[in-house]
Amino acid sequence: MKVRGRGCGVIRDVRHKAAPLPRVPRSSYRYDLDGLRGIAIAFVVIFHVFVGRVSGGVDVFLLLSGYFFLGSQLRYADRDNASINPWWPFWRTLRRLVPALVLVLGVTLAVILAFVPSLQRIHVANQVVASLFYVQNWELASQGADYGAASASVSPFQHLWSMSVQGQFYLFAIALGIAIVLIRRYRPELNSMQLATPVLAVLTSVSFFAAMLWHFIDQPVNYYSTFTRFWELGLGALFVLYAPRVILSARTREILGFVGLFMVLSTGLIMDGAQTFPGPPALYPLIGACLIILGDGRVSVFLASPFMRWLGDIAYPLYLWHWPLLIVGLAFFELDEVNVLFGTAVIAVSVVLAWLTNKYVEKPLQQRGKRPVFREHRTAAALEQLRTVPAARWRAVVGVAIVVVAASMTTTPQIFYNRVLESQDATLDPRLHPGAMALAGVPVPDAEPAPDPYILADTVSPAWAKGCMSVIGDDPDELPPDRYDPDFCTFGDLSGDREVYLVGGSHAEQWMAPLDSLGRQHGFRVIPLVRQSCPAFIEDLDGIFSDECARFNENVAQRLDEVRPDLVISNSTRPLLEKGSGIDEVPASYPTLWDFLENRAIPFLGLRDNPWFIQEGGAPWMVSQCYDEERDLRACGLERDLFYAPQDPAAGELGARPGMLAVDTSNWFCIDDFCPPVIGNIYVYRDGNHMSDDYALSLAPLLGEQIRMVLR
Predict the structure, then answer these.
(1) What is the DSSP track for 71-98?
(2) If we measure between CA atoms, which residue out of 581, 575, 610, 576 comes closest to residue 685?
(3) How many Å apart are CA 275 and CA 220, to the nearest integer?
(4) pTM for the complete prediction?
(5) Which of 525, 618, 621, 511 is nearest to 571 (CA)?
(6) Where is the Acyltransferase domain (predicted)?
(7) Rg of the Cα trace of the chain?
């Protein structure tokens, strides 16, 4: 085949010339997808406020992030003069995302510090820092936080997990784009579509199957994990590569648009994504979004309308603002649930704040220049702008202010932690706060209960605070005292000639404060061998405790066998909530420890557990905070027979064993038939089932009498 070129009469033979390799499509900007982003976030807000379920809008948002961001990186990588300098896309992304984020975090934190003491928690402060550094999803996973419906006890920064996933993916996208630029320097015949497709296809597939598997292993981690969320962004990235090449009739594209929009909008009505996403059910809204990308017609016209595009413009700040407003509002107004008036006000204020943030923060601070090409340097031009252009100087000043505010917020966890330390170091006046001594007839004056119930919620007992307690994630084969110098994890009288070992979980460890005090007074040492969520046993006969707990207890038993202490103390009862029982009982596993100790003639003191205040969903009920807010003992307490069996379930078995004593502590927590949140002007509980150190210390005389009976 011969073709005559225009104007020059040159004849070219093109019979054997290869067709050009496909590149990342440079299609015109999809304004309808801006509208899709807006409507997706609008549904997120509506469902968060009024429904309390996941709408699937965030999943669509993540897919579109992969579609837009990675598409832009790959298109740039296809340029023959592309630069390998990653600073520009990183800087552009920072300028687009961080100012609004810092504004929302700063304002929310200021409001919490000024007006909402119930949210002044260390874990909330840690989430502020995690959000700033785009690792909030991992912080929530490490805290074991389920993605729950809105309530006054939920973190106001919980929703920022998705921004962290998005930010981490952006780093991957920038790195992938730079890698492709480098490869094309040496293999220019390759393009980004060829190089990116196998990487994205493999990672997206692996992520999808990981999300499917991890749903059955740990759904909360599955929900937050970047690795199991990657496939949603990866699917969007693959779509930007191949969707423009799909040729469909106009009628088909219009039908796809309607079907896709229906699927996106109906997701929250037919499924609860918090329980299943990002597993296979997340395909439903994402396939819907993909159909919209493939579609056209009236749906695309609607999504590209001025209002929908405006909604897309404010989608990011709308997402940032709505959740803190909702949670802080519920806490401030002490609302148990969202009513129509409050919910409508939250949405209206969120929209106004989002519009103002978009107009006066986002847009003015965005990077608008084109991306530099190979060997193009802009540093000198930027410095010249700072010298000559007032707007540039103003942006620089605002940028410095953002950095200063962000840096100041990173100190928040330490500030909150110092408050906790000060609270733990403070000693209550026993004349004003007699605590458990009120049960023995000591007068109780008219005084405010102490300590601060909101700071109290972040406190832990001495062994945990000192690092002498094994926590979830620690090596179960390592006993905490072995980490340090011999006496570091020894409490009480370090020179005492008798040894008391405390074994079990956090409900045993909470007795460390009075044991430490009693040890100093009566000349015995106290060594804790305790692990979070791990009661003491030799064999798990209940089938509810972890393998790590069983391994830890094997090491505890070996240590007890070696040292043969003068006394072992632990809990003798607990409610088996794992089996649906809320009444205290002796788990089948506990007597295996008692047999072990009896065979070695080691004395044992078994403490009946304190009441557990558990909400219907299984979360602890913050009873001390309840009383501070309600000032109603009955409303914030518990009827005795709702937790305690009529008699101490351990009394018979322990009473029949020599050198063992069952201590019925129920009268230490309940007055007649009622277990109040405050006794003797001291808050009894730090949360819903653990004692406050101050109340535990007030129990020292009562506990000391029981210890003397066994040691004698």
Answers:
(1) HHHHHHHTSTTB----HHHHHHHHHHHH
(2) 610
(3) 8
(4) 0.85
(5) 511
(6) 31-357
(7) 31
